[in-house]
Design brief:
Radius of gyration: 23 Å
Order of helices and strands: HEEEHEHEHHHHHHHHHH
Structural class: alpha/beta
Largest sheet: 5 strands, mixed
Strand order of the largest sheet: 1-2-3-4-5
Helix content: 40-55%
Number of strands: 5
Number of domains: 3
Number of helices: 13
Length: 299
């Protein structure tokens, strides 16, 4: 008979995780082609005093990713590979708790499988005898899309976390975001008044500008309610993102010019271009006209 997994209690699991010991691990496990649809974060902590990781993936699509269970397994495998690279003497693997946060202002619930076994193409009559030989993997799902803002406001979370979930709910591609965000003006004011208020408000506004075409002028009713500090943060954030957009455009132009002139570029060259400041990009772009090789371009 196949083994029966123990009944899952998320509250029991949460009680075993040392959230106070959580340390953010730099880097992302999402491939470049999927970063417009997902973002991820990895924390190192302990579960019952043993080393463990919490891996959180935030899904920005308007529909469920049917292969998400497979993608999450591949990310967990990569986390283990990196852990073993850093601890080559280890004979065990740390627990990795995978969580997908699904959010969309359209309200479409998550419909894709959360278990890997549901993706394996087998007839039901074959699944039971093969159960013990199939990989078993499941990720936790926080289907924010299925909740309204009132339900999110009622969650027992830190103010910054609660507001970020609300932004994920109402922010992306929402033409009414400027009016919808007024529903949480009191929470935003409390965030601004906190010890790290300006920085945390900046993060929220940056996210909002990136995932939505809302303008500073459209947010003026909000910033008028929140005061001069909020208005200054919104203006500074918009200017910073506009400058970043211009820099990204310069990078794309230079890469295109070099590719036309010299053919496909080595990864080291594109990496160097992407890391350059505006002055260096201008200098290299001028040099494209006269350089006869990539070595001369970057000498």
């Amino acid at each position: 008979m196949p083994p029966t997994p123990p009944a899952r209690s998320d509250a029991d699991l949460a009680a075993r995780i040392d959230f106070d010991a959580m340390v953010l691990v730099p880097g992302s496990f999402i491939t470049e082609d999927l970063r417009s649809q997902y973002s991820d974060v990895l924390y190192q902590t302990t579960i019952d005093d043993r080393g463990a990781y919490l891996y959180i993936l935030i899904e920005h699509q308007s529909c469920s990713d049917h292969l998400m269970a497979f993608r999450m397994l591949s990310y967990v495998l990569n986390i283990w590979r990196r852990h073993l690279d850093e601890h080559p003497e280890s004979k065990v693997l740390p627990a990795v708790i995978p969580l997908v946060v699904h959010s969309t202002h359209t309200g479409l619930r998550w419909t894709a499988p959360t278990q890997l076994s549901d993706l394996i193409d087998l007839d039901n009559s074959s699944r039971d005898p093969l159960f013990r030989y199939l990989p078993r993997f499941e990720f936790l799902l926080d289907d924010v899309a299925a909740l309204d803002v009132a339900a999110l406001r009622a969650r027992d979370l830190t103010p910054a976390t609660r507001l970020m979930l609300i932004m994920h709910k109402i922010g992306p591609d929402n033409p009414h975001v400027a009016s919808d965000i007024m529903e949480v003006v009191d929470e935003l004011r409390a965030l601004l008044d906190g010890p790290s208020g300006t920085r945390e408000f900046d993060i929220l506004v940056t996210y909002l500008f990136i995932v939505n075409n809302v303008s500073v002028d459209e947010l003026q009713p909000l910033t008028d309610r929140l005061g001069p500090r909020a208005k200054e943060v919104a203006m500074t954030t918009a200017e910073r993102l506009e400058a970043r957009g211009r820099s990204t455009e310069r990078v794309a132009i230079l890469v295109d010019l070099l590719t036309v002139k010299f053919g496909p570029l080595p990864t080291a060259v594109t990496t160097r271009i992407q890391a350059a400041d505006a002055e260096q990009l201008r200098a290299w772009t001028r040099r494209v006209l006269t350089a006869v090789s990539l070595d001369e371009m970057f000498d």
